[in-house]
Specification:
Distance between the termini: 67 Å
Strand content: 35-45%
Number of helices: 10
Radius of gyration: 33 Å
Number of strands: 31
Helix content: 10-25%
Largest sheet: 12 strands, mixed
């Protein structure tokens, strides 16, 4: 072992020197932004001693390993070690494209002999110690403690086990332990010591079929792997034919994993993508899809009647954010101020790292999901809307900031996401009025010019007023006011106007209104500062409703739809939080969408 360790260290140093030489000598083409390095490594350590014949007679452990290995995103390197009286199978850390080799090795092991957990753990720890990954984990599955042919050999194995655990803790390697069978019910068992001392998780699976639950807990709880259960199918005599929603257009990769406690046969699929690979095992199948183009896939297979087949989707992305900044300048109330009050609207849009013309996350599945922007340790959370993250910031001086993103709350696996540089320009100076001395004639001309301008402005205003349609509310058509308080806000998106102008998203705070107020859509749009005329908006009313809802009453000839349902004229409809309504106005040109959102008391300010 000593000679082997020295050689390993020498190889490690040579690898570091080689990488350094490449860095300084080889020309590279990279993004201006930095990329988050996310390379990770996991070793699956399996006890294949003879007692496993009793605890896992159907070899369900192998299927659990398949689920574990194929669920991990492609930025994971995976290794495999199996032990009985000694290390009897080993696969070094391999990248994503060689995972089938690991499964072939796992499927070849036989349950026989003693249990030398010390030798197995030492091998797994040494494999990870040599890795340059930023996160390192071991997943150990065992049905008992160290047990060798005699007491001395057992004691030696246990000593090596403890030393390997200490080495793992020193190297930042977490060890997660799954105990199989009744003997492993006590988590104070010495095998579980590895989890306690390295910050890993300890799990008990009374029967082999329970291992999948433990694997799920490790993947989602410890590794934070984002996955979506697409379907759970009860197999019958006939071929199962499904249409699976695939809301991950242009993801770098989407893994579709089918697992079962019985064989899966005759698997066929149909979808649109750049490429795909399929791996079939006895009780599992994996379809790895590169950059899917559609939002649905057809899948058919045969299972064993009475058994279930679980289908999960594991999406992963490599992301290039882009940023745009607009400003809103206001005259300050402070009479001594020298510059405008400026607020920056910073919009982050996310694109595929391999093709920066492809915008990501525009699907409805990603709407309202959380992302965080980190600027020099200051973290601000935002909500994704139409594939964009928008944040507002008060600007007092010019600044250049490097922004990174935290995607831990996002429902997909982000393998890489670049940082972006945000430049905010200082607010402009207020105009300075300097008095000037004018001769009497110039004063007279200036006075006449002012009078002329006032006359012209007056005429223009009157002409505009005469051209603007006067909204005369019909008291007979206005609904009765509600008795409940308003507690929400309308988020308004004007998608089309008669003038052709683009209008930014708007919001109107209903909670500021008294409960007895019935307000028309035209009043709401005017309250948002819109001068555009929306024909029929004056005959669409909003009033407060029970249960934190609002009531929409349609007295117009506009086409109003909610969730595919047309809202009829002279009818009232109750809208609860999250309800989205589309309106096509009477001019058959103007259109908008609004969404009713209920606010928490802390948001009403």
């Amino acid at each position: 072992m000593g000679v082997r360790s020295k050689i390993s260290r020498i190889n490690k140093y040579l690898a570091i020197i080689w990488i350094f030489l490449l860095t300084v000598t080889v020309p590279r083409s990279v993004y201006a932004e930095d990329k988050m390095e996310t390379q990770k490594a996991v070793v699956f350590l399996l006890d294949v001693s003879g007692s496993m014949k009793t605890n896992d007679p159907n070899r369900y452990v192998i299927d659990s390993i398949a689920q574990f290995i194929y669920t991990l995103p492609s930025n994971y390197e995976i290794g495999f070690v199996a032990y009985n009286a000694e290390v009897c199978a080993r696969q070094p850390l391999m990248d994503n494209v060689r995972r089938k080799e690991i499964m072939q090795t796992a499927e070849s092991v036989q349950y026989t002999g003693y249990s030398n957990a010390g030798a197995g753990m030492a091998e797994a720890v040494e494999m990870l110690t040599e890795s340059l990954a930023i996160e390192k984990d071991i997943v150990l599955l065992s049905d008992g403690e160290c047990l060798m042919a005699n007491e001395d050999a057992t004691a030696l194995s246990y000593t090596i086990y403890q030393e390997a655990i200490q080495q793992a803790a020193a190297d930042g390697i977490r060890i997660h332990v799954i105990g199989l069978g009744e003997e492993m019910e006590d988590t104070e068992n010495s095998i579980f010591q590895a989890a306690a001392e390295t910050g890993g998780g300890a799990y008990h699976s009374p029967q082999a079929l329970d291992i999948q639950t433990s694997i799920d807990m490790i993947l989602q709880g410890q590794f934070q792997i984002k996955q979506m259960t697409a379907a759970i199918v009860d197999a019958g005599e006939d071929t199962a034919e499904l249409k699976i929603d695939l809301p991950f257009t242009y993801a770098s990769t989407v893994r579709v994993l089918l697992t079962s406690s019985s064989p899966i046969r005759d698997l066929t699929t149909n979808f649109n993508a750049d490429g795909a690979r399929q791996v079939n095992g006895e009780r599992y199948s994996l379809i790895e899809i590169d950059s899917p183009k559609g939002n649905r896939m057809d899948i058919s297979f045969n299972g064993t009647p009475g058994h279930q087949i679980r289908i999960i989707l594991i999406p992963e992305y490599k992301v290039l954010p882009k940023v745009s900044v607009s400003y809103e300048d206001h005259t300050p109330e402070d009479v001594n101020a020298s510059v405008f009050d400026r607020e920056a609207v910073v919009t982050y849009t996310f694109y595929d790292m391999e093709n920066d013309r492809i915008q990501l996350w525009t699907e409805e599945y990603f709407a309202h999901n959380r992302l965080s922007a980190d600027t020099a340790g200051e973290v601000r959370k935002g909500t994704l809307e139409d594939g964009q993250l928008q944040m507002r910031e008060t600007v007092t001086e010019r600044s250049v900031k490097e922004v990174s993103f935290d995607c831990s709350e996002f429902p997909a696996n982000i393998l890489e996401i670049s940082t972006v540089t945000v430049t905010l320009e200082a607010p402009p100076a207020l105009p300075v009025e300097e008095p000037e001395e004018f001769p009497g004639v110039i004063y007279g001309i200036a006075f006449l010019a002012v009078v002329l301008v006032i006359l012209i402005v007056t005429v223009v205003i009157r002409l505009k007023k005469s051209m603007r349609p006067v909204v005369v509310p019909d008291n007979d058509e206005r609904p009765e006011p509600g008795k409940s308080s308003y507690v929400g806000r309308l988020n308004i998106y004007v998608t089309r106007t008669a003038s052709g102008y683009d209008i930014s998203p708007l919001s109107y705070d209903l909670f500021r209104l008294p409960s007895t107020r019935v307000i028309s859509m035209s009043e709401i749009l005017a309250g948002c500062g819109l001068r555009e005329v929306f024909e029929g908006a004056e005959h669409i009313y909003i009033s407060s409703g029970q249960g934190h809802s609002v009531i929409l009453t349609n007295q117009s000839d506009c086409c109003i739809m909610k969730s595919g349902e047309i809202l009829m004229k002279k009818k009232s409809y109750q809208l609860f939080a999250g309800a989205k309504v589309d309106i096509a106005f009477e001019d058959e040109i103007s259109e908008l969408t609004f969404q009713y959102r209920e606010l928490k008391p802390s948001e009403m300010y």
